[in-house]
Design brief:
It is built from no helices and 11 strands. It is 0% helix and 50% strand.
């Protein structure tokens, strides 16, 4: 019923910037907590950032705090992750997710996008 589609990934040099977008359809977007997660090769999927339905509250993983602000535009049914000061360790598939609870756990997010690849080169 709810579909999420990520875009904006690509290849970028260390120290550079990218903005990821996640477009939602099929639901009431503003009622969902939206999160970003990532999965690097050979590693488990991990929480990156989340934002309240209104956009008034955010939370971040320590590894990205201060570098990857999350935002949303409910009029456009879109959530963003602006990534700056990118590091080699940020290389991963980035996933957008929607849920109903203010937590970082993957199990609490019911809807997931297909992922977009972010590759950071030296």
């Amino acid at each position: 019923q709810v579909q999420l589609v990520e875009s904006g990934g690509g290849l970028v040099q260390a120290g550079g910037s990218l903005r990821l977008s996640c477009a939602a359809s099929g639901g009431t977007f503003s009622s969902y907590v939206m999160g970003w997660f990532r999965q690097a090769p050979g590693k488990e999927r991990e929480f990156v950032a989340r934002i309240t339905g209104s956009g008034g509250g955010t939370s971040y993983a320590d590894s990205v705090k201060g570098r990857f602000p999350i935002s949303r535009d409910n009029a456009k049914n879109t959530v963003y992750l602006r990534m700056s000061s990118l590091k080699l360790g940020d290389t991963a598939v980035y996933y957008c997710a929607g849920g109903r609870v203010w937590v970082a756990a993957m199990s609490e997010y019911s809807y997931w996008g297909q992922g977009t690849q972010v590759t950071v080169s030296a």
